[in-house]
Write a structure and sequence with these properties.
The chain is 35% helix and 13% strand. By secondary structure, the chain is α+β, with helices and mostly antiparallel strands.
């Protein structure tokens, strides 16, 4: 599937009823492949999933391109590495937010079992494609959550708000990532897995970093 392909702009003829069923079945197969770890086609499969009701010939052609890509990259592997990431102090500067959030504490389950074994790091990568959809102008959020160096959670979904800038879209993505992190940390504690400190979140927007980490920065 061509990286510049925008399914929302496709104006090819609509598929016949029998081909609509075939298209839907192929999207189901591709989504299952993503669940099994083929993250390289996640965004494309998600975009095509928006046209399950009225797919067009161009959408069916894009599915064939995806299968061609899978066939030519059939040796791709996902690595689950239990090593820790050696972050340096400069990567995550500590700031005092106690004046803003005086009563903020992590929601730790009271009935969680005693933690055992080595603690795990929670490392998160967050990114946004601002106004990715050419018709609705919705942005697209991508999130990868690692335990140490092992990918555990992958998330790719269109935002349901129209943001006027990359800053706004990135902030929405951070909110989504925070909710995913909270849920994962709660689940890990209920499984008796010790957690090493706070989650490490990485983004590629410097203004977002400053406005979400430095208390004196004005939003």
């Amino acid at each position: 599937m061509h990286t510049e392909y925008s399914p929302e702009l496709d104006i090819t003829p609509l598929l016949e009823d029998d081909m609509v069923n075939f298209f839907q079945s192929q999207i189901s197969i591709l989504r299952w492949m993503v669940e099994l770890g083929r993250l390289d086609i996640y965004v494309q499969v998600l975009m095509l999933s928006s046209y399950l009701v009225q797919p067009r010939q161009g959408h069916m052609k894009a599915v064939y391109y995806l299968y061609g890509n899978l066939k030519s990259h059939d040796r791709s592997t996902m690595v689950f590495d239990d090593d820790y990431v050696n972050w340096v102090d400069e990567d995550f500067l500590e700031q005092d937010w106690s004046d803003f959030y005086k009563d903020a504490i992590e929601d730790v389950p009271l009935n969680a079992p005693a933690p055992r074994g080595m603690p795990v790091q929670v490392n998160v990568f967050v990114d946004t494609s601002h106004a990715r959809n050419k018709v609705t102008r919705w942005s697209h959020t991508g999130i990868l959550i690692y335990l140490n160096k092992a990918p555990i959670v992958w998330y790719s979904k269109s935002q349901r708000t129209v943001e006027t800038s990359t800053f706004g879209a990135e902030f929405v993505a951070l909110k989504i990532a925070t909710e995913l992190i909270k849920a994962l940390r709660y689940k890990l504690r209920m499984m008796g897995v010790p957690i090493e400190g706070p989650a490490n979140i990485l983004v590629d927007n410097n203004s977002i970093v400053k406005n979400s980490t430095i208390p004196s920065s004005t939003l």
